[in-house]
Amino acid sequence: MATAPTALIVIESCFGNTRTIAEAVAAGLTDAGAQARVLDAVQAPASLPAKLDLLILGAPTHNRGLPTTATRTQAGKQAGAAAPNSGMREWLARTTIPAVLTTAVFDTVTSKSWLSGSAAKAIIKALRRGRGRDAPSIRSFLVQGQSGPLADGEEAAARTWGRALAASTTNV
């Protein structure tokens, strides 16, 4: 009997939109029989669990890439909340991700135009740096305006993507 695949979703979220997408992806994974857990990058361990089948990384797009301390501070002021001084960029720098681990990446964006940039593409560059990894599954989810909300249908699309990721994981 095959065991249920395990997935870890590590995110950075400033206004809650990226977290909503991550929770929907986790629900889709669970729908398909996987075990999924969502952690903020600031709380995620630098050493990944040994029995991990799928790692999903997500972040909002800030200034055409991953959030920085400055953009987090600005977002925190907009949201009226204290901003963490680390996030996805810093987690990637301190974490060793095995080359054999199946990985998927997503971001939230205000436009799907190439001019808007992509946090997901920045994550992929970080994954490739020194690791020689192939491009993982990548997905962008649309947010209406800088602080949201998510565009219509994006949460459902995230859940569907989660189901598809579970189906493509070798242990399912």
From TrEMBL:
PROSITE patterns from the UniProt entry: FLAVODOXIN_LIKE
Residue stretches making up the Flavodoxin-like domain: 7-166
Top-level lineage group: Bacteria
Residues annotated as transmembrane: none
GO MF term list: FMN binding
Protein name per Swiss-Prot or TrEMBL: Flavodoxin/nitric oxide synthase
